[in-house]
Amino acid sequence: MALVTPLSPDHDIETKELAEFFNETLGFCPNSVLTMQRRPAISKAFINLNKAVMANEGRVTSALKRMIAWVSSNSTGCRYCQAHAIRAAERYGAEQEQLDNIWEYRTHPAFNDAERAALDFSLAASLVPNAVDADIKKRLYDYWDEGEIVEMLGVISLFGYLNRWNDSMGTNIEEGAVESGDQYLGKHGWESGKHDGSQY
């Protein structure tokens, strides 16, 4: 079971209204947000940051942002966020071949060099100790401008927060996210782990 029990979506009306954003991205309000609302200032600040970070400003597409989130979550081992990220990538139009082969983004032809540079940046920035170096910087600047790099690091940093939140909380994973995790990640060993509601 989760460390802290999620509250009803009706607990805080302002959070509920802001959380309508997640009906588009995921199809449901995440249990993580329902837990954060025990301190509504946190849930509201988080949702507003999420909306700002995930806004589509141009070439860093909504689908790519969710794949960046998946790589970051995969590196930290947060199964809850892995499933959420791949579900949102699907809902935002990631190509089927990319969804099916996200584990092999470095070599699979469904990914281009600009996407590989972005996803390698996500991996390097998510490691502890941090592995962003001159080579990562050069590759980023080959394809992306500074505003786009800021967008990417916004996603990586947002998911750094979410990875720690959800793995520490043992947040129970929602049915829709389980379906996406099983479909796209299960063949590589993804399972809900502590997030299935019975192991914490």
UniProtKB/TrEMBL annotation:
Record key words, sorted: Oxidoreductase, Peroxidase
Instruction: Note the coiled coil stretches, chain numbering.
Output: none
Q: Which residues form the Carboxymuconolactone decarboxylase-like domain?
A: 40-120
UniProt-listed InterPro entries = AhpD-like, CMD-like
Q: Which organism is it from?
A: Ichthyenterobacterium magnum
Task: Output the Gene Ontology terms for molecular function.
Answer: peroxiredoxin activity
This protein's source sits in the domain of life called Bacteria
Q: Does the keyword Oxidoreductase apply?
A: yes
What the entry lists under Gene3D superfamilies is as follows: AhpD-like
Oxidoreductase is among the record's keywords: yes
Task: Kindly provide the name given to this protein in its UniProt entry.
Answer: Putative peroxidase-related enzyme
Pfam family name, one: CMD
Q: What SUPFAM superfamilies does this protein's entry cite?
A: AhpD-like
